[in-house]
C-alpha cells in the first residue's frame, strides 16, 4: 500500500509539471463561406510544439486517436487556394489554440506555415429577409420610416428542388408594443426544413418620433392640360391631415398645393385620379387626404 501511495504521489507530481511537447489534433473546419458547405469535407492534422502539463499531453494524445475536433473559424481567416480548397495560416491559427488543444496549453510554434481544408460548392441563392412584426405605438407616436434589417438578404443552401420554391426568408414574430422611442435589437430567422441559411439571426432598427397633426382644406387643381381642353375635378377641395415631427418648426399647410396632372388622367380608368402634392415640406412625416380618389371630366374649353 505504501508503494502504491508513493507511486500515485510521484505520478500526480510528474503529470502536474510543465513540458514542451509536440501535439497533433485532427480538425474539421466549420466556416461560413458563401457558395460553399459550411463544414470542410476533410480533416487536417494540426501539429504544434506546445508547453503544457503532463495531464494535457495525455489528454491530447487521447484526443488525437478519437474523431476529429470541429472548430469554428472566422471566414476572414480562410483564404481561397484552388477550386474548393482554402487555407489558414499559422499566424491566424494561433487565435484558436484553446479550441484545438484545450485549456492550459501555451503555443510555442506550429510545425507548418498553413493548413488546408476543402469546402465543397453547394447549390445556393440569395433571397430577401421579410420581417414579421406586431408593432404598436403610444398615442401621438409613430415610425419615421420602415423597419430596417441588417442584413436584409441571406444566402440559402440546399437541393435545387428545395431552393426553387424559396423566394424569401421570414423572421420570427417581433412584438414591439406601445413604442415611444426608437427600437433596435436582433431577431432569429425561421428555419426552413431541408435548407441551410447563411445567418441564424438579423439585426433590426426602427426610428420612432412624437408627432402632431395639422388639418387643413386645400383646393385640387388640374395641371398641364393641353390648350383648348378643360379638366374639371370633383370635388374641387379636399381635407388634408399632416403628421409632423414634434416640436413643429413651421406650419406646412401654407406651403403645399395639390393637383392632378393631365397625363395621370389619360392613364386613369374612368377618370378616377389621385391628387399629388406640389412638395412634401420639411418635418412632415406623412399625410392623408380625404377623399383619396377624385372624378375628372375632360371637355372642350370653348
Give the fraction of residues assigned to helices: 10-25%
User: Which band does the percent of strand residues land in?
Assistant: over 45%
Give the number of DSSP strands. Answer: 25
The rounded distance between the terminal residues' Cα atoms is: 126 Å
Summarize the topology.
Blueprint: H1 2-16, E1 18-30, E2 44-53, H2 54-65, E3 69-72, E4 79-80, E5 85-89, H3 90-93, H4 97-101, E6 106-110, E7 114-118, E8 124-130, E9 133-137, E10 141-143, E11 148-150, E12 153-157, H5 160-163, E13 169-170, E14 174-179, E15 183-188, E16 196-197, E17 201-206, E18 208-223, E19 229-234, E20 237-245, E21 258-261, H6 262-267, E22 272-273, E23 276-277, E24 284-290, E25 294-300
Parallel strand pairs: 1-3, 8-13, 9-14, 18-21
Antiparallel strand pairs: 1-2, 2-6, 4-5, 5-7, 8-12, 10-18, 11-17, 12-16, 15-17, 18-20, 19-25, 20-24, 21-23, 22-25
Amino acid at each position: 500500500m505504501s508503494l502504491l501511495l508513493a507511486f500515485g504521489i510521484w505520478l500526480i507530481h510528474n503529470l502536474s509539471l510543465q513540458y514542451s511537447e509536440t501535439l497533433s489534433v485532427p480538425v474539421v473546419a466549420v466556416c461560413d463561406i458563401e457558395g460553399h458547405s459550411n463544414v470542410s469535407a476533410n480533416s487536417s492534422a494540426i501539429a504544434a510544439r506546445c508547453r503544457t502539463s503532463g495531464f494535457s499531453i495525455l489528454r491530447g494524445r487521447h484526443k488525437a486517436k478519437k474523431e476529429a475536433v470541429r472548430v469554428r473559424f472566422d471566414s476572414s481567416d480562410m483564404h481561397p487556394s484552388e477550386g474548393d480548397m482554402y487555407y489558414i495560416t499559422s499566424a491566424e491559427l494561433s487565435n484558436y489554440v484553446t479550441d484545438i488543444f484545450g485549456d492550459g496549453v501555451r503555443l510555442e510554434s506550429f510545425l507548418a506555415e498553413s493548413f488546408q481544408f476543402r469546402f465543397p460548392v453547394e447549390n445556393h441563392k440569395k433571397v430577401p429577409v421579410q420581417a414579421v412584426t406586431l408593432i404598436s405605438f403610444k398615442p401621438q407616436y409613430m415610425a419615421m420610416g420602415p423597419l430596417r434589417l441588417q442584413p436584409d438578404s441571406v444566402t440559402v443552401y440546399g437541393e435545387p428542388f428545395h431552393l426553387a420554391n424559396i423566394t424569401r426568408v421570414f423572421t420570427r414574430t417581433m412584438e414591439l408594443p406601445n413604442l415611444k422611442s426608437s427600437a433596435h435589437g436582433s431577431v432569429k430567422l425561421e428555419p426552413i426544413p431541408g435548407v441551410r441559411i447563411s445567418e441564424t439571426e438579423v439585426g433590426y432598427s426602427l426610428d420612432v418620433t412624437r408627432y402632431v397633426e395639422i388639418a387643413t382644406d386645400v383646393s385640387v387643381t388640374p395641371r398641364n392640360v393641353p390648350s383648348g381642353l378643360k379638366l374639371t375635378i370633383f370635388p374641387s377641395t379636399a381635407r388634408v391631415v399632416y403628421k409632423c415631427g414634434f416640436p413643429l418648426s413651421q406650419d406646412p399647410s401654407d406651403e403645399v398645393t395639390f393637383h392632378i396632372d393631365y397625363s395621370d388622367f389619360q392613364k386613369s380608368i374612368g377618370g378616377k385620379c389621385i391628387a399629388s402634392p406640389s412638395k412634401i415640406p420639411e418635418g412632415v412625416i406623412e399625410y392623408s387626404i380625404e377623399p383619396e380618389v377624385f372624378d375628372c371630366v375632360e371637355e372642350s374649353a370653348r
